[in-house]
Amino acid sequence: MPERVVSDVVCPFCGCLCDDIEVVVRENRIVEVREACALGTAKFMSLSVGERITKPLLRVDGSVRQVSLEEALKEAAKMLADAERPLLYGWSSTECGAQAVGVALAEVLGGVLDNTSSVCHGPTVLATQDVGCPSCTLGQVKNRADLIIYWGCNPMQAHPRHMSRYTTFPRGFFRERGVKDKKIVVIDVRHTETARLADRFIQVELGKDYELLAAMRAALKEYEIPEKVAGVSRKDILEVVELMKNCQFGALFFGMGLTMSFGKHRNVDNAISLVKDLNAYTKFIIMPMRGHYNVAGANTVFTWETGFPYAVDFSRGYPRYNPGETAANDVLQNEECDAALIVASDPVSHFPAKAVKHLASIPVISIDFHHTPTTEISKVVIPAAVAGVEVEGTAYRMDTVPIRLKKVVEPPEGCLPDREILRMLLEKVCEIKGVETPVVKHA
Ligand code: SF4
Fold first, then answer.
1. Domain ranges of the chain
2. Whether the Cβ atoms of residue 218 and residue 230 lie closer than 8 Å to each other
3. pTM of the model
């Protein structure tokens, strides 16, 4: 049986966007994945073995029936056009072209447009808007960094190749001996798998990251600090600050342990400010560990098109941004949306019960490739081809470097790219509303 090997494939799972994957294809089925971690391999392989949605579905009076794409789109367009303030949510697990059409659709509908960063690194965006963000590319980290700090994140579980491709283990231009040239520090509330690989582990008390960051900034400026801060001794704080001050190139990576614990964007503000302070002594950068493979792209595309990275409300006829009022969870929990379009996401599995309760009470349309709890409550489900496996496109890595996704296999018959489905939906909505269909430049 003839096999073909597709090389330099980009893994469309996490924000590392590893671009060195080899995929073995036999008769349009993926039979082997090389170089990827377990998470990336599972994403590629699940498309061949998992249960896939291949036909549009319509739920009427509790029962589900297969319908044509035309009927599904007609029903979905009507539901959205009839709504006063629909929510359009998801977007982080699809490519940038689809995101751009999504923005146009939200504007025509006067809806609320939000992506998954509102429940992960939204606080990072808020802090960056307040104080900026001294950063660089992952390539620069690989070639230059001699001190890596992971704060409130566990890449060994969530971004399994981050350490081997970009930070800890690779040899770099100025780091020829690989890991021997580097020091790794982990700061977290628990001793994680990543902490086991670190030279130094600092255990911070739950919810006290802000205090520890403030103590580090004070110590850096040679102020007296208490004997113990956030469960960490003065001696440990001073030693870590000395390490930071005396490295040649430091990189601080942080995760949801910082963004979603007590303090939220103020934690990130303080971490960025610490890094800014460190640049008076050496070169130091900071970078969020973005989760979904194209959540950075969602922030980027939304910002190009509307000026705002997430939680964009078009209900007044122009884009307005006020997280806390206009994010997906806000409009769901306050019962301020009356229909929802969910693209490549599963909020029913991840949102608080109050938000899910409202979502289940309004008409929902899902565009997805497999069954999820969200497709189970959806009135219309439209199957899609998988970006980065069955469709080309662009995605932004966690360092906001755009990377071209490859097409490896043909999608199942009738499964179109997200951007095509959304374009057809946009046309139908414009038809119902009697307005001209906008031209989407980036799709
Ligand atoms: S680290 Fe992330 S991008 Fe790289 S192979 Fe694993 S899941 Fe895919």
1. 3-45, 51-119+293-433, 122-288
2. no
3. 0.96
